[in-house]
């Protein structure tokens, strides 16, 4: 684990994290489209999640204060009751990367499949730190570009990516039939 920003830690995910990845995809798309059925997201994870598509989790570590920990319930044999105050860790974000092929050049490049930060932890620099982590990962493996898809209705994400230097390269168009 490495500290992403103060109080927030980044740890690598693994194949055993499929169910949690599906939950985070549901959180992401559920925020954007609360009235839609999202059962297909499990299929997306099943089809694309592999050793070639790395996953990282953002953990928030909070030291409970004495009032939260109810120190009176702890054994009195410890001369330093604060040493028994538990640390709470919760997963508050994730980054899932994949691969894409630039259809104009044929070059493989990294693609951000999912970047999610829980609403109560947003606007603290976590999203930007995750994007920078993704870019560094891509550079390390020799990629010369990185891509992502962002919905036009997700203005906070659009603002973040534009601030970090991302530019529109194409437009994905749909027509309902």
From the structure above, extract its key features:
globular, Aminopeptidase, 6-stranded mixed sheet, 177 residues, 29% helix
Q: Describe the largest sheet.
A: 6 strands, mixed
Principal-axes geometry comes out as: globular
Percent range of helical residues: 25-40%
CATH topology call: Aminopeptidase
CATH superfamily: Gcn5-related N-acetyltransferase (GNAT)
What is this structure's SSE topology?
Elements: E1 2-5, E2 8-12, H1 18-32, H2 41-48, E3 55-63, H3 66-69, E4 87-101, E5 108-117, H4 126-140, E6 146-148, H5 155-163
Parallel strand pairs: 5-6
Antiparallel strand pairs: 1-2, 2-3, 3-4, 4-5
Explained architecture:
- With 177 residues, the protein is of the alpha+beta class.
- It has one domain (2-69, 83-163): 3-Layer(aba) Sandwich (Aminopeptidase).
- It has helices at 18-32, 41-48, 66-69, 126-140, 155-163, and strands at residues 2-5, 8-12, 55-63, 87-101, 108-117, 146-148.
- A six-stranded mixed β-sheet has the order 1-2-3-4-5-6, sandwiched between helices.
- Strand 4 (87-101) and strand 5 (108-117) form a beta hairpin.
- The N and C termini lie far apart (47 Å).
- 19% of the residues are buried.
- Residues 66-78 have low confidence and may be disordered.
At a glance:
The chain is an alpha+beta fold.
């Amino acid at each position: 684990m490495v500290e992403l920003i103060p109080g927030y830690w980044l740890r690598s995910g693994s194949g055993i994290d499929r169910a949690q990845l599906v939950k985070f995809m549901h959180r992401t798309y559920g925020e954007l489209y609360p009235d839609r059925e999202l059962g297909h997201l499990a299929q997306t994870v099943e089809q694309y999640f592999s050793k070639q598509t790395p996953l990282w989790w953002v953990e928030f570590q909070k030291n409970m204060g004495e009032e939260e920990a109810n120190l009176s319930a702890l054994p009195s044999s410890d001369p330093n009751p604060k040493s028994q105050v538990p640390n709470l860790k919760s997963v508050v974000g994730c980054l899932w990367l994949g691969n894409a092929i630039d259809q104009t050049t044929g070059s493989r490049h990294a693609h951000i499949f999912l970047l999610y930060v829980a609403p109560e932890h947003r606007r603290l620099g976590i999203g930007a730190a995750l994007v920078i982590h993704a870019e560094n990962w891509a550079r390390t493996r020799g990629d010369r570009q990185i891509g992502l898809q962002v919905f036009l209705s997700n203005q906070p994400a659009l603002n973040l990516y534009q601030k970090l230097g991302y530019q529109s390269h194409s437009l994905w168009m749909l027509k309902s039939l």
